[in-house]
Amino acid sequence: MKKKKKNIKQIDFIMFASILILLAIGVIMVYSASSYIALYGKKDSMFYLKRQALWAVLGVTTMCIFMNYDYHKLKKYTTLLMIACVPLLFLVFAFEGVNGAQRWIRIGPASFQPSEIVKYVVVVYMAKSLEYKGNKINSFLYGIVPYLLVSGFYAGMILLEKNLSIASVIMIVTLIILFVAGGRALHLFGIVTPGLFALGVVFIFSESYRRDRLLNFIDPWKDPVKNGYQLIQSLLALGSGKILGLGLGKSRQKAYYMPEPHNDFIFAIIGEELGLVGCLFIILLFLIFIWRGIRTASKAKDIYGTLLATGITSIIAVQAIINIAVVTGSMPVTGVPLPFISYGGSSLVINLIAMGVLLNISRQTDSI
């Protein structure tokens, strides 16, 4: 009697390709955006390129491992991951802060933000728990509040690190997952959303630097030397690029006009060097990724896979939207990196691990 061959499906190639193209563009643009400050600050124009390329190789390797790792096995590590995140979030306070914020744990020359791990751990927890919630999701007290408390706990700890942006991402993604899981629109958008918005306003005005950012967003030229400086330089970069850009490597704003141009405001350098065409291409790639992520979630073989894919896709989508909105002056300045493109090794690796999980879900769907 012949043995049946195991039916191993292929990953979503379109999603995989969009991730790799974004990653390749990111490595190239990190080099282009950082070469000037690296040459004069580190005496090596390829300093940031070497580090980012190394992290990219490590990230792709881990992504390939996790795309072949059954995502259902994550369930048994959920509690352990949630517990481990708590001391990591406290550990950041043992290290010296940067610009008034304490978000990083430093190990030798490397550093990472525990918040980058926490946002995905919250998704894993919600996917596992909501799979068994059933009709209780329709109850505000038993279906919505417990998840708001858990997500709010981690978001609150991240807020203590002076990181309102990632705390906001966690709460936004929590709302998205609850909605997809069957939460009532009245509860989520009639009660929770206004409540979170009110809390956000309180947190913004509770810190002078956040309040200044909001007021300067309305009119950055009111304080062009200090609080409005970064946004003004970003707008100058985007405007200088026009339709086709100045050409790869020919940015002027990266020459000590734009603070750390290879980080959160790298999209402005893309606009300056590659123009509107380059910016639209980046946005198109993110839209393709979001489309395939939604398809993967809708075709997952179980509720756990649907919610896990929804959460992972939402994190990338929300961060990309916020980053591009900030760089283009569509919302107040906040520190959210552009996924796969902004400089940052540990963040890149963690995002790519999550992409491996998402690709594994796509491998186990009914059809793509």
From TrEMBL:
It catalyses: [GlcNAc-(1->4)-Mur2Ac(oyl-L-Ala-gamma-D-Glu-L-Lys-D-Ala-D-Ala)](n)-di-trans,octa-cis-undecaprenyl diphosphate + beta-D-GlcNAc-(1->4)-Mur2Ac(oyl-L-Ala-gamma-D-Glu-L-Lys-D-Ala-D-Ala)-di-trans,octa-cis-undecaprenyl diphosphate = [GlcNAc-(1->4)-Mur2Ac(oyl-L-Ala-gamma-D-Glu-L-Lys-D-Ala-D-Ala)](n+1)-di-trans,octa-cis-undecaprenyl diphosphate + di-trans,octa-cis-undecaprenyl diphosphate + H(+). It is a multi-pass membrane protein. InterPro entries: FtsW, FtsW/RodA, SpoVE. GO terms for biological process: cell division; cell wall organization; peptidoglycan biosynthetic process; regulation of cell shape. It is an enzyme of class 2 (transferase). Its main location: membrane. Belongs to the SEDS family. FtsW subfamily. This is Probable peptidoglycan glycosyltransferase FtsW. It comes from Clostridium putrefaciens.
